[in-house]
Amino acid sequence: MLSLVGIAIVAAGFAARLNPLLVAVAAAFGTGLAAGMGVLEIVSAFGRLFNGNRYICLVYLFLPLIGLLERLGIQVQAQRLIGGLKAATVGRTYLVFFVLRQVLAALGAKDLSGHAQMVRPVLAPMGEAVAAETLGRPLAPEERTLVRAHAAAAENIALFFSEDIFVAIGSVILIKGYLAANGIEVSPLDVSVWAIPTALVAVVVHGARLLLLDRRLMAAKGGRS
């Protein structure tokens, strides 16, 4: 049980708004020391894991590309595109993205979207354009924050509740290993199949939240007209 001290360190560090990197390192050291590892073993584990997962650093290659696209007007083009669709609303736009994100993640293409590549440069500006069209005026700061937050939520929730449908993913292996350690034998395919109902429920629940966002914006339009 002492090995779970890392969770407490993470919770306390984030509650105190400390640097996330320092909190993660402290949690790793706390867990390692509680598990009986020496300092050199912990540092060695850091190096080994970094070397084994160095491909993750490839994401930094996309950042200059995203910056260049923003400079060339990708946000303006996204706003112009979605603004021309008469039936579009913020909730419907985000719901379509939500479903597509789930389908792609279920097929194993979970890295085709993300906050840096899709939400900030494309999805959020599209939502802001539709919201402004709905309200018939520029968005107030709190309305802009609300629309952006729902864009980020659509990405997070869609990915979280659908990535386990793809059987060849690390989280499925983690679930299988945890269950096996507690005497419950399941196959990765079983985990994948049982992730489908959860993903469908996520569509219904979050879809309702997105449609309620449309009603909230319409209420704001009526309140300020």
Automatic annotation (TrEMBL):
User: InterPro entries this protein is in?
Assistant: DUF969 (IPR010374)
Q: Name one Pfam family in it.
A: DUF969
Q: Which UniProt keywords apply?
A: Membrane, Transmembrane, Transmembrane helix
Q: For this UniProt entry, which segments traverse the membrane?
A: 25-43, 55-74, 157-179, 191-212
What is the protein name stated in its UniProt record?
Putative membrane protein
